[in-house]
Amino acid sequence: MQIGSYFDQSRCTGCYTCSIACKDWHDIKESAVQWRRIIPLERGRYPDVYLSYVSLSCNHCQKPACAEACPAGAITKREEDGIIKFDQDQCLGKNACEMFCKQACPYDVPQFGSGENSKMQMCTLCVDRLAENKNPVCVDACPMRALDFGPMDELKKKYGDVKEVEGFSHSEETNPSIIFKPRY
């Protein structure tokens, strides 16, 4: 089974509630570290302009490039559900390994703080909450209900199998576990 996520671009208003809830739940104090990022997309020319958003975190790829690139083996994929996990104690730190995981990820997911030789960190899909049969905090926090998660086969049955939206390109090499509903 592969756990993944769903993002409805047509519902997202760019309120950042999902990102703020993630930072709060995981007690992320550094402003530069964003386990869930909101990417604004401005398009068009006056008078035909529009603004849309993409909300992204780790895509828990089926073939994670970050794990393959990590020289310390600090990033692994859980067999039972495909969730990518990391061990900060094993991480060599950004100065020691030159951030190979961040460079390998086509979605710029691995995050490093600004501190000297800070360790990698990224979305855990709230495995602590999943263990209690709760949703990831970003899903529950979204006031527009633009986010969902679950087994990929169930998400595809419920929402379809759109793999790209404006602001996100699907990579066949990594096969990210995310599906979308585009704004248009």
Q: What spatial order of strands do you see in the largest sheet?
A: 8-1-9
Order of helices and strands: EHEEHEEHHEEHHEHE
Total beta strands: 9
Helix content: 10-25%
How is the biggest beta sheet arranged?
Answer: 3 strands, mixed
Which shape, going by the Cα principal axes? Answer: globular
- The residue-averaged pLDDT reads 93
Tally of DSSP helical segments: 7
Counting helices, strands and paired strands, the structural category is: alpha+beta
- Assign the CATH architecture: 2-Layer Sandwich
Quote the CATH topology: Alpha-Beta Plaits
Gap between N and C termini: 30 Å
Q: Regarding CATH, which class?
A: Alpha Beta
From the alpha-carbon coordinates, what is the Rg to the nearest angstrom?
16 Å
Low-confidence stretches: none
Beta percentage is: 15-25%
Oligomer: single chain
Question: What does this entry show, briefly?
Answer:
The chain is an alpha+beta fold and 184 residues long.
Key terms for this structure?
Alpha-Beta Plaits; two-stranded antiparallel ribbon; single chain; 184 residues; 7 helices; alpha+beta; 23% strand; 3-stranded mixed β-sheet
